[in-house]
Write the structure tokens for this entry.
Amino acid sequence: MTRIKSVEEKRGNGYLKVRSGLCDFCGSCVAVCPEDCIALGENTLDIEASVCSLCLNCVKICPLHIIIYEE
Amino acid sequence: MPLFSDKYDLIVVGGGPAGSIAAETAAGGGLKTLVLEKDRDIGIPVRCAEAVAAKHLPQYIKIDHKFIDNWVHKFLLVSPGGIGVHISIKEDGAILNRKVFDLELAKQAARAGAQVITRANVTGMERKDGLSTIKFQHYGKEYFVRAPLIIGADGVESRVGRWAGLNTNLPLTDIETCFQYLLYHPDIVNDRLDFYFGEEAAPGGYLWVFPKGDNCANVGLGISGNKASGQSVKEYLDKFVQKKFPGASILSSVAGSVPAHRVPKKITCDGIMLVGDAAHQDNPLSGGGILNALAAGRFAGQTAIKAFDLGDFSNRTLENYAKAWKKELGMEHNVLYNLKRIIQKFSDDDLDGIAEKLVQLPDDQRTLQKMFITAFAKQPAVVIDVIMNYLKE
């Protein structure tokens, strides 16, 4: 079964969320993460929220828009 | 007997074309080599549009029709306003079947003596006293393997590079975010590569229709990371497909990103070499990465053998790999990077203007070279920009 650790960490004025189940595991978000806080397994996507600087590069790059930032 | 030894001469992270050629070369030179591939199958998923200039392949693998789906000798470039420019090419363009192609390359590596393991997800790397320890997961168990030499062939994510402290992070301006379908539709032209440009189709990138035969094609697009907002890449693609190939069957779909960047200043350090997309060696204009990755794998494998001969795994020896790659492909790579930056600045009107000029040329004068000359004649200032950028290298 696909498992995605969902991140919903309060940061500043908003939330970073990963929409579980829709990830294609392509690694785009990892490639643009300046903090190297995203880890991709064969079928897992983990964002280490304590390291995340909330630059939102992953939100912008995701081809499927499964990482969302909500105010 | 355990599946893996605990120590190798060389560990290659990633079983794509760059990793397999590196492993084949190194194992052929007598190095005890391990290839760790994250996915359950070599070559799957196919995060690739699969077009390649066939003449360069035989240096690495004997051309076999089982991994070539189609041959093409024609391009169609479509401007934002819908002006179609037909271009014939003399050399053979091949549309690969990457599932088979990658598997054949991995088999070559295995035949040369390398051990290839799939479903081996590398999760960490540490270097101490001249030896790197790689941590990986395989069917729920954690394993540790050590080697003095590591080749990072782990694609656009390039985690090996990050763990090694090399700067492989991609700025949003220099990465293309992509989505692709394998489509069947009766209107797909089987012998031509189609490219669509412009803000509506693919801002800061292009949309491709690369035929695989039997009215099937890889239909996908990439947009520049800094222009990605609002709609997702998938939404761009769906709009195109609805308009151009209504009712098409979607036989496969895949997301991914390609570097459109310079090769970082440092792609080696003590005990580590990065190859292929992990070192941003793909063509920054087209996103095509296979041939440059194969060349990198070969050079890195040769350098690994040399390092063992010398008993020196320091950057001083390993940087010779980066130099060899740069000597053969670096200049072209820089030119293409600068071209990309210029073309991204063109407005839809600029692109339509270039297309209008090109369609007026007779067929035999309509070449890709002529296209660039026409493009720069339109904006002479950008030519100076390219030259200045180039001189700065």
User: Anything to note?
Assistant: The mean pLDDT of chain B is 93. The CA atoms of residues 124 and 135 of chain B lie 5 Å apart. The two ends of chain B are 52 Å apart (CA to CA).
